[in-house]
Design a protein that fits this description.
The protein has helices at residues 3-14, 21-24, 27-40, 45-60, 66-79, 83-97, 101-109, 118-132. The chain has 141 residues and is mainly α. The longest helix has 16 residues, at 45-60. The protein is globular.
Length: 141
């Protein structure tokens, strides 16, 4: 079995069956995930297993949902102008979150209006504050 098929199999094994609507809408992003492994040349089975475990952790986490994590990655990537990550997470937010391109632009302008629960929005805004001013939050030992 080639690496792409192993990645898809690992991802499909972590999804709850029957698929919930939130999981059904991310199926197109699995293709993006597999393509990212092919682009980076990651064919190491141990790394594939590790990445699948990370995805499993966040897909089944009670409070850290795919929308929050994709929003954080999208906004941080936008701050640093990292097109690959911007496009990947924009795709996830389009598919899983139903956000349009204009919604994503508005999100960059006003992250405090993100369509998230209040505790998730607070975490998002804190992460953005730390990323923008890291020296203010550095650990002093």
């Amino acid at each position: 079995m080639n690496c792409s098929l192993k990645i898809i199999k690992n991802i499909l094994n972590i999804l709850p069956w029957p698929l919930l609507p939130a999981h059904q809408c991310i199926m197109p992003t699995i293709r993006i995930f597999v393509q990212s492994f092919q682009v980076t040349g990651n064919t190491d089975p141990e790394l594939t297993h590790l990445q699948s475990g990370i995805i499993r952790h966040y897909m089944t986490h009670e409070k850290l949902g795919i929308g929050l994590l994709a929003t954080i990655r999208y906004l941080v990537a936008s701050l640093y102008d990292y097109p690959y990550c911007i496009n990947l997470n924009a795709g996830i937010l389009n598919q899983a979150g139903g956000l349009s391109d204009s919604d994503l632009e508005a999100l960059k302008e006003n992250p405090e209006n993100a369509p998230l629960e209040e505790f998730q929005k607070a975490l998002l805004l804190f992460v953005l504050k730390v990323v923008r001013t890291p020296m203010k939050y550095r650990r002093v030992t």
